[in-house]
Amino acid sequence: MRMRVNLPDICAKVRFRQSGFTLLELLVVIVIIVTAAAVVAPSLGPRAQQAQLNSGAARLDALVRHARNRAVIERRQIVLVPSIDGRWVRLHYLGGQGGALRAPPLDLGAAVRLRLAQTSSALEEQGIVFRPDGTADQTELLLSSNAGVRRLHLDPARGRLLTKDSG
Questions:
Q1: Which tens digit of pLDDT belongs to each residue from 62-89?
Q2: Does domain 45-163 match CATH 3.30.565.10?
Q3: Is the Cα dihedral 83, 77, 137, 65 positive or negative?
Q4: Backbone angles phi and psi of 109, in degrees to 5
Q5: Three-state secondary structure along 96-151?
Q6: What torsion do the CA atoms of 114, 117, 123, 128 make, to the nearest 10 degrees?
Q7: What does the domain layout of the chain look like in residue ranges?
Q8: What is the pTM of this model?
Q9: DSSP structural state of residue 86
């Protein structure tokens, strides 16, 4: 008894087992990915530094608004004081008016620094004062990182930080 084998069925099974990518195709794809990464990677450094500066400015603006709101709600003068190295920003009551302000200090990050633009030593020691009527002294702040320096202007009436145009 002879068994009859259908030749097209055997060829279909062999073709099915050979599906997939060849080594050459995989190497070509890897070379393309490495080339694309080499082109994109150098541009990521400045963007990350600029993002840190933008993030620091946004967090500082939020803290300024918080300080102004607390001064209005509590009807007390609140002072925003940057640390000596400019990495931390703290809030406290002006002149020790009874108790400490329960607000954690703002960490601007390892690469971002803040300093007040005025050269008056009294202003640097005192910081930015927010009054119970919602006003503050007109102040310029310098926020710096490896991406550059951003000059911020404190609007005294609204208690908002605005980016000063350089042009």
A1: 999 999 999 999 999 988 888 888 888 8
A2: no
A3: positive
A4: 110, 165
A5: HCCCCCCCCCEECCCCCEEEECCCCHHHHHHCEEECCCCCECCEEEEEEECCEEEE
A6: -60
A7: 45-163
A8: 0.68
A9: S
